[in-house]
Specification:
By secondary structure, the chain is of the alpha+beta class. The chain folds into 2 domains: 43-163, Sandwich (Immunoglobulin-like), CATH 2.60.40; 175-282, Immunoglobulin-like (Sandwich). The chain contains 5 helices and 17 strands. The protein has helices at 2-24, 80-87, 153-157, 206-217, 278-282; strands at residues 48-53, 59-64, 67-72, 76-77, 95-98, 115-119, 122-129, 136-141, 144-149, 175-179, 184-188, 191-194, 223-226, 238-243, 249-255, 260-264, 269-273. A 9-stranded antiparallel β-sheet has the order 4-3-2-1-6-7-8-9-5. Strands 12-11-10-14-15-16-17-13 form an 8-stranded antiparallel β-sheet, with helices on one face. The longest helix has 23 residues, at 2-24. It is extended and about 100 Å long.
Length: 312
């Protein structure tokens, strides 16, 4: 009985001690307020982009039926990933706001700014890199000055082709005709047929034709660059591709090795492709012979007869 009484006393003292400890704790700190978005403009609502650079022609980009298109100085589908990276600046929370009264705009190269990007009616002006961190850049929106990640400056300051789609055929391409130097395919009644003799192809040719067409429809280049024709290096062939309900696309084969390069003279751009894509794009897949269960040839009997021994 005495032990139970002592146990109850001990538990009571423990409870009192815990209560006193909790009472002595400092009050709970309020949660840190989340940094507001850089702007109130929703990236998904933006329909027009305009990039102005000192000494260069402006780049005009427009959303057409939900797809970003470069409309000037090129007329090509835009690189969606890079366009989205630019748009995400509108809603970034990763920035530091500076006291505009304590900075000199000219020293930050914001008066005038070498690059301006207009998102519909909102204008961002990009200045110099931070002297303390080359990965940060000064930015001006109206009268406010910010310091934020220098993640898209390379795309904004370079040639317009840096914002062009890496697909030579555009997004969601659907072919109706494919003319290569040694292959000519055409879509008829939903089936691909060859207008040139097809030999040594897989499964009589049907799968081979579809494979070649799908390879072109999903083609992605390594890079897009301006095309400057060299009169001393004539093209090594031509390719014509017809897309469904669109005019034909004409390509010139500029190089096969060490780089595989296709040019579109009408758009003044060239697409640089990896070398391993060359055979898959220019030829039909080769038929793989079926395995034949042939009986192995009988092994020749080992020679066991020893040569005669000349006795002395």
């Amino acid at each position: 009985m005495r032990q139970r009484w002592l146990l109850n006393i001990g538990l009571l003292l423990l409870i009192i001690g815990l209560g006193f400890f909790i009472w002595q704790l400092p009050p709970t700190m309020p949660k840190t307020q989340e940094t507001p978005k850089l702007t109130m403009l929703d990236p998904l609502q933006v329909q027009n982009l305009r990039v102005e650079r000192v000494g260069q022609e402006p780049i005009e980009i427009k959303k057409v039926q939900g797809v970003w298109q470069i409309i000037s100085p090129l007329q090509l589908p835009a690189h969606d990933f890079r366009i989205q990276a630019i748009l995400q600046l509108l809603s970034t929370r990763n920035y530091r706001k500076l006291d505009a009264s304590q900075v000199k705009l000219a020293e930050l190269k914001l008066e005038p700014a070498p690059i301006k990007v207009q998102f519909d009616d909102l204008i961002m002006e990009f200045g110099d890199q931070s002297p303390m961190n080359e990965h940060l850049r000064y930015l001006k929106i109206k009268s406010e000055i910010y310091l934020l990640s220098d993640s898209v400056h390379h795309f904004l300051n370079g040639n317009a082709v840096l914002l062009a789609n890496l697909s030579p055929l555009g997004t969601s391409a659907k072919l109706s005709e494919l003319q290569l130097p040694n292959v000519h395919l055409q879509l008829k009644d939903g089936r691909w047929s060859s207008l040139k003799p097809v030999e040594n192809t897989r499964d009589g040719g049907a799968d081979a034709l579809n494979t070649l067409v799908e390879t072109w429809e999903h083609l992605q280049a390594l890079s897009v660059r301006p095309y400057h024709p060299d009169p001393t290096l004539p093209p090594q062939g031509e390719i014509q591709i017809s897309l469904q309900n669109q005019p034909p696309l004409n390509f010139k084969i500029i190089s096969l090795t060490p780089e595989f390069i296709l040019a579109r003279p009408d758009k003044s751009v060239e697409y640089h492709l990896s070398q391993h894509q060359l055979n898959k794009l220019m030829n039909l897949p080769v038929k793989v012979p079926d395995a034949v269960d042939a009986e192995p040839e009988p092994e020749k009997a080992l020679e066991t007869t020893s040569p005669p021994i000349n006795k002395p």
